[in-house]
Description:
With 284 residues, this protein is α/β, with parallel strands linked by helices. It contains 11 helices and 12 strands.
Amino acid sequence: xxxxxxxxxxxxxxxxxxxxxxxxxxxxxxxxxxxxxxxxxxxxxxxxxxxxxxxxxxxxxxxxxxxxxxxxxxxxxxxxxxxxxxxxxxxxxxxxxxxxxxxxxxxxxxxxxxxxxxxxxxxxxxxxxxxxxxxxxxxxxxxxxxxxxxxxxxxxxxxxxxxxxxxxxxxxxxxxxxxxxxxxxxxxxxxxxxxxxxxxxxxxxxxxxxxxxxxxxxxxxxxxxxxxxxxxxxxxxxxxxxxxxxxxxxxxxxxxxxxxxxxxxxxxxxxxxxxxxxxxxxxx
Length: 284
């Protein structure tokens, strides 16, 4: 759940932006059939098994339109939900329920889909010490929602943005003129509290990264045998991350590797939504 400061400063402005995207001047459909305020209630129904996530955002979407709206839930973020299950109700001005419906569901379905996909992926690493990480491959202006959903699904967040940590990728290495120089320059520039992570694609680059004193070495798009050889070269001198087109289907083949992290952009860019719906709207 978002703390009050994060909610006020970082989450609510994005929800308001999404509402403005959907209502540029008025909700013509709603105003056609509901010219005046009338109290009503609608049920939140799950239409697919999965992990629910984003209830706080869902509720705030309605209360931003009208603070008097009441949203109640029978579940919490992280709960497993079932097809046909009633998850809660929204009570208030019917005009608010109709106008906020799509935006609220968009957030809830997207976040629940990511939590579900992450949960299923993380389960494949049970029994190992490997931590599953997300990436920055998120939907623009949705990162704060999508990375939260990863944690609800039992995944872990990699750096939040470019200000959050040093990760030297292939183009950084090219700009610096090589692995050793990239690590040296980052060590000289970045605050001493920052770890230096570098992406490598060959065993020669692995050796360079070890000699340069990188804190974390990311093995990018290597085959299984090359990764095993790289792990032997590193030999505990740095933490190890595996990355590069890691999907749920590939996780099982990585369990035997003695690495610290596996990062997967698929957690956020390839997770399908969880099907949810608002049904049974009626006046009260």
